[in-house]
Amino acid sequence: MHRYLLLIIALVLIAGGARAASGTLPPTIDVALRTVGLPVEAVAVLIQEAAAERPVVAVNAERPMNPASVMKLVTTYAGLEMLGPAHTWKTDAFALGPIRDGVLEGDLVLRGGGDPKLTLENFWLLLRAIQSRGVREIRGDLVLDRGFYAIEPGDPGRFDNEPLQIYNTLPDALLINYKALKLIFVPDADGRRLAIIAEPTMPEIQITNNVVLDNAPCGDWRARMRAEIRADDNTARLAFAGNYSRHCGEQVRFFNVLSPTVYAGGLFRQMWAELGGRFTGNVRDGFAPGNARPIASQESPSLSDVVRDINKFSNNVMARQLYLTLGAAAFGGGATLEKSDRALREWLARKRLAMPDLVVENGSGLSRIERVSARGLGAMLAAAWRSPVMPEFLASMPIVGVDGTLRRRGKPLSYAGQAHIKGGTISAVRTMAGYVLDATGRRWIVVCLINHPKVHNANAHTVFDALMQFVYTRGGTLPQLSTDQPMAAD
């Protein structure tokens, strides 16, 4: 009887796996989808054990869908394999003229190499290195060399008509501090007024503060405060009015309001002076000539660190910088989107990853035309699991309920801390993909792509939670598919 019972249980599990493989959603996920009012046709789902080569659940998995920021997984995995986890970018400084008694009798050239993380701190280190080489005064101009990128200037508002939002910052070969203006809203100690602190401070940026401090609940503090912003690349005027609650404490907002040249020039003047240097020249774009004298260089953090920032915090501009680097590294010369697309597809061919549905516009997911299928993502995540760069890739993803963009998700749920997941959100799109460690210790690939005009009104996380909860609690009962078993049908 005991043997018969075990046989019946095994047949039930195999039947369950067969039903899943035929393209049906597990009941809990189906219920969650119905609860939020989304049709199954709008959803693609794939569940596959990480070490396997076939999924056990595949619904609409062949359908090309907009992945939103889940596309960053494609860019970062390709980057880790094509460039190597230790890859770095360099920003170089050149002197166009002799240096005598601390004075550069000529121009200073800064040549960008596409560093995705040339932050305030790293830019300060570069200027400090220049001064340590004996340059205290510059009697020429500051020349900004962006020639590493051979791309046309773009429209930062093209994606959603929000050109001042920091997520719409465009890639630049000499992108300093993401071109970000950071505003810190600070109620003073006696609770009478609100201070607005700008970092960095530049004469090109003027701030008017007419915000009234009150004792209302904090709530949506941004909605209670009105902002009027006028920017023309060269100057920016930001006027704030409305109310701000003392209970909100310090809050931060970021804006993208100046051109790369004006931003870099203003930041250079400020930092150079703070370091005790003197500069009264102009700031202009140009190129470092072949006979330019190198005097200093700043190296970026390694790619393994960069991909953590890209995926854990869904940094769009860093992803776009990395994507452009792929083409330049593969084919040389100025970086272009065409070179990067070619380099990515040649890499996929070498990996024998068939992703004919893949459409990449910029590698960040901030796009209306990028497409990938759940099947393609699942195959790529399976290849990544077998890759030497798997530890760096896995560690770059947010841990649900622990860190990154998902630190506040899933904390009361059993799978919190057990899932490395990249999420994506743009209008009409909600997506997720990554790995879940189930309760028995088996690692699973999960992909869920939702494309529907009404998804912004639905709680897509209900579907995502049901999927991860199902894999975490039921993963141990799912069949183990060998490579000679049929793939799940759609």
Model description:
This protein has 490 residues and is of the alpha/beta class. The chain has 3 domains: 18-86 and 304-477, Beta-lactamase (3-Layer(aba) Sandwich), CATH 3.40.710.10; 90-154 and 261-296, 3-Layer(bba) Sandwich (D-tyrosyl-trna(Tyr) Deacylase, Chain: A), CATH 3.50.80.20; 181-255, no CATH class. 29% of the residues lie in helices and 24% in strands. It has helices spanning 2-21, 27-35, 71-83, 120-132, 260-274, 303-312, 316-331, 337-350, 374-385, 390-395, 460-474; strands at residues 43-49, 57-59, 90-96, 99-100, 103-104, 107-111, 137-138, 142-145, 181-187, 194-199, 205-214, 225-231, 236-245, 251-255, 278-279, 283-286, 293-299, 419-426, 429-437, 443-451. It has a 5-stranded antiparallel β-sheet, sandwiched between helices. Strands 16-8-6-3-17 form a 5-stranded mixed β-sheet, covered by helices on one side. The longest helix has 20 residues, at 2-21. The radius of gyration is 26 Å and the shape is globular. The model is unreliable at 1-22 and 482-490 (pLDDT under 50).
